[in-house]
Structure formats: C-alpha cells, structure tokens
Amino acid sequence: MTALVLQARIDSSRLSGKSLLPLGDKPLVFRVMEALASLSGQPLPWDLKILACPEDSVSSFAPLAEEAGFNLVPGPKDDVLARYCLAIRKSGAERIVRATGDNPFVFVDAAASINSEAQVFGADYAGYLGLPYGAGVESVASEALLRAEKEAKTREEREHVCPYLYGHPELFRLHRPQAPAKWQSPELRITVDTEDDYERAQTLYEYLLSLSPSERNLGENVIAGAKYILTKNSPQGKNP
User: Fold this and answer.
1) Do 175 and 125 form a contact (C-beta atoms < 8 A)?
2) Per CATH, which fold does 2-233 belong to?
C-alpha cells in the first residue's frame, strides 16, 4: 500500500499562520490537499491520504482534513521524521509519497510519475531534479524511513525527513533523475514561504481558476500560468 503523507504546521517564522491563509475561498493547506486528491483522467497512485500535523494544530486542521478526505495523524512538531514514521505505523503503508503544506501548486502528475518510477526501480528514495521550487514530492520506501528514524541524529535530518537517505547513498538505493522536459523550470518559484510568495500564489491561483480542479495542478498548466504572470509583471511586459 502507498500512502500520500502531507506535512503541515500553522506557525512559520517567515509567514505567520500561512497554512490557514486564504487562497480563493479556502485555506492554503486545503488547496494543497485538493491538488493531491485529483488526477485528471487517471486513478490516484496512492491508496490513502494522510495529513501529518503537530499535535497543537489538530483543532485547526481536523475539519479541513475531513472535508478533503485526508486522515489526520498528529505527532511531534519539530521531529517531522518521527511524525512520518508514526503515519507509517498507523497506516501500514509500504511506501510514502511525501508532500509539504506550503506547495499549493504541486504537480500531481509529476508526483504520480516519480512514485511509479520509484516502484519500478525499487528505489528507497526518489525525487525529480529540475522542477520549479515548490512543485515536487518525494517517494520513499517505508522501511528506509523507519531505518532513518533510528539512525538520523542531526536537526536537519529530523526536521526535513529525507536528508539522511540521500546523504547516505551507500546505504540506500536512490533515484534522482532530471524531470521530463515538460516539467522542467527550475528558475520558477511557486512555493509559499514569504509574503511575496503568497501574493504571487494568489495571482497564480486566480489565473488557474478557469481550469477544472483536476487540471489546475498539472505541471504544464502551472508552468504556463507562472510564466505568463512573470512576463506580465516584468517591466517589458507591463502596459505603458
């Protein structure tokens, strides 16, 4: 069984309460869950969807998770690796697709693709290179994450979940290919981590509203929208 595990928290040092900031008429974290719950014309490659949040966020996230069809698994705030392993133990998942709550424009089609490649190659860890910042996910074997939980010591390894895996290629089978050309735009930033990011996200979301929910988070559509907005807002692209 494969479980999609989305990590999210409310407090943020750079943009306070960003998970609950509105994007359209719903909070940002709901838009991330919405993006990962629909794949146009294809079945979703994960059997279960989990929102893994800190214990102090349960009251805020529980109704949103229920509405989006996600199971809620609370755990440690700063030891996110332990939070993921708790989700593994509760779900019994053999593989985890890891997503983060500040990426409302995550490419759901690229997520499905890298997870499929990970299974074909038997990778302990898989993630595309060359995507826009804020577009990707990681596909990880549960056994590898459980080993990392036992062996990872540094704050970075615990807080960011996967550095222990790709930092030890002698221990784990890694698959880190360049993304297919249609999804490559590493110069683009579509995550939400600052006030400027949030303002761009609002504009991009409005642009994508003309598409159905299952099409808004297809990589080519997001890239087209982000590039259009970037060109429109550039000095050369502004109307006199």
Assistant:
1) yes
2) Spore Coat Polysaccharide Biosynthesis Protein SpsA; Chain A (3.90.550)
Q: Rounded CA gap, 55 and 238, in Å?
A: 46
pLDDT lower than 70: segments of the chain: 40-41, 234-240
Distance (Å) of CA 5 to CA 33, 45, 161, 213: 10, 13, 12, 20
Pick from 207, 198, 229: nearest CA to 104: 198
Quote the CA–CA distance of 13 and 69 in Å, as a whole number. Answer: 29
Q: How far is CA 140 from CA 47, 93, 164, 219, 237, in A?
A: 15, 11, 12, 21, 42
Tokens of 217: 């988070």
Sign of CA dihedral 115, 120, 125, 130: negative
The neighbour count for residue 13, using CB atoms within 10 Å, is 6
Q: Are strands 125-126 and 138-141 parallel, antiparallel or unpaired?
A: antiparallel
Type of residue numbered 119: Q
Q: Which of 30, 226, 212, 206 is nearest to 131 (CA)?
A: 226
Contacts of residue 181, Cβ cutoff 8 Å, sequence gap at least 6:
none
pTM for the structure as a whole: 0.93
The burial of 167, by beta-carbon neighbours within 10 Å (0-12 exposed, 13-18 middle, 19 or more buried), is given as middle
